[in-house]
Amino acid sequence: MTSAASHKLYYRIGEVAELLKINTSVLRFWETQFEQLKPQKSKTGQRLYSQRDLELAKQIQELLYREKLTIAGAKTRITPSRRTDPEEQEEQKKLLSHIKQELQKLRKILE
Question: Which of 29, 48, 69, 96 could form a disulfide with 73 if both were Cys (CB 3.0 to 4.6 A apart)?
Fold first, then answer.
């Protein structure tokens, strides 16, 4: 990517496709599959990709084309756009700890 392109606030779909060397139809398909990829639309309906959208598209391309993941696999690898709050994270840790303890008990029974 050129230094001039890296300073833009928004990229049109054709520009993003050209930078990634893919068809615009691929980008439109990715928008339907990855909820995090939501470019804004201009008054005329032109898709406008932010720098964040461009980086996400690059990440999707990396996962699908270079790492050969499926769409489902790529979805699981992409970090969610919304972070869980600390209380929810703590609850998840407690639940996982409890599950671990139960599995260890089952393991001892089976041995």
Answer: 69
Q: Answer for the pair 49, 57: CB distance below 8 angstroms, yes or no.
A: yes
pLDDT in tens, 35-91: 999 999 999 999 999 999 999 999 999 999 999 999 999 998 886 645 556 777 788
- Which ranges of 1-111 does DSSP label H, i.e. alpha helix? 13-20, 24-33, 51-61, 71-77, 86-110
pTM as predicted: 0.65
- For 15, 20, 69, the CA distances from 74, given in Å and listed in that order, are 23, 17, 6
**Tens-place pLDDT, residues 24-39:** 999 999 999 999 999 9
Report the alpha-carbon distance of residue 50 to residue 89 in Å, rounded: 29
